[in-house]
Specification:
single chain; alpha/beta; three-stranded mixed sheet; 11 helices
Length: about 350
């Protein structure tokens, strides 16, 4: 349902915390940017179920909706983060946690360089700079991408955070620039950044997106609805993927990691995922939807998409993530079952 708008002054009347079952709980006033996306919606729904969450503000360039909650104040703001006026109104000194999920995705950022720079770099820096001024030290959870890397040194090479990124796409380069800035601001104590590089998240509900990896969800989502889907890359290609459920768990883990756990090192973490080939994905589709669903996938190679996706490594050593307590992902079959449980097939 649609969010109910409330005056800003109503959001922050909880003092510095609250009593819960006789124990003191620090308040959490949360902002989620890019909240119109399905990860933002799933994250908001999870936060609403937490007693320690006091208020949630959701913002995006599109009209927003969010679960209603009698316990929490949920506020929606439609607007563009490239506007300093919007940043000034949203980024207040009462926020305790800021989840940055906004962005122009990989395929769209490659097709429109100026728009990608404006949203993925300029707007992100505007958020960082406003926060470090009005709310220094606030905890910022920034969603980056494994697209910051270029092709691995050799097939099957397991990348770690210590490997130097050299992106094969404008999207990856723009995210890397924002990572570097947030790392520096965290080093200086201006912000408390947590940078998580997401695998390709499948299965995304709703319509196809501007991401080069959009097909990875489409080859499940559309056939399970009884609709055709285009496969623009080779079946032999492999991807590093993760389920929405695991991504949300790990965003919350990033929020809760003690600052000292990072030491004096980088705030970047490659989130856990699993390596699967397109052939394995199609076999999984057949196992769940049958031959009829599989036949709805049409192979139609698209060189621009293929060039971007081929530049993404598909094997990672996530020892750092495990050490910090991030959750490992399940099997592809578990991911598909979870998608159907959460969203259904959409077939009429």
């Amino acid at each position: 349902m649609r969010c109910r708008s409330v005056p800003i002054y109503l959001m922050y009347n909880a003092g510095t915390g609250q009593m819960l079952n006789g124990q003191y709980m620090p308040k959490m006033n949360v902002l989620i940017t890019g909240a119109g996306g399905f990860i933002g919606q799933a994250l908001a729904a999870t936060l609403i179920r937490e007693d320690k969450t006091t208020s949630i503000t959701l913002t995006d360039v599109v009209e927003l909706s969010a679960p209603d909650s009698p316990k929490h104040i949920v506020r929606c703001v439609q607007g563009d983060l490239t506007s300093q006026n919007l940043c000034d109104s949203l980024l207040t000194n009462d926020l305790t946690h800021v989840f940055l999920l906004h962005g122009i995705m990989s395929g769209a950022a490659e097709a429109n360089l100026e728009l990608g720079i404006k949203v993925n770099m300029d707007a992100t820096r505007r958020v960082f700079d406003t926060l470090r001024t009005v709310n220094p030290g606030v905890r910022v959870i920034f969603t980056s991408t494994t697209a910051v890397y270029g092709p691995p040194p050799s097939p099957g090479f397991a990348l770690t955070e210590a490997n130097a990124p050299c992106s094969g796409s404008s999207y990856g380069a723009q995210k890397l620039i924002s990572e570097t800035l947030l790392n520096d601001y965290s080093r200086r104590g201006l912000l408390d950044g947590r940078i998580v590089r997401l695998p390709t998240v499948i299965v995304r509900p709703g319509k196809p997106t501007g991401a080069a990896s959009s097909f990875a969800s489409g080859i499940f989502r559309e056939p399970l609805k009884g609709q055709r889907s285009i496969l623009p890359v080779s079946k032999d290609l492999s991807l590093w993927i993760c389920s929405p459920r695991t991504v949300v768990k790990n965003l919350l883990r990033a929020r809760d990691i003690p600052t000292e756990a990072y030491g004096n090192g980088s705030r970047v973490v490659n989130l856990p995922g699993v390596t699967v080939s397109i052939n394995e994905m199609l076999e999984a589709l057949k196992a769940i939807g049958g031959q009829k669903a599989l036949e709805l996938v049409e192979e139609k190679r698209d060189p621009p998409t293929e060039r971007i996706v081929e530049s993404w490594p598909s094997v990672y050593d996530t020892s750092k993530a495990k050490q910090l307590g991030f959750t490992e992902d399940g099997t592809l079959e578990q991911t598909l079952k979870g998608y159907i449980e959460d969203y259904g097939t959409g077939k009429t």
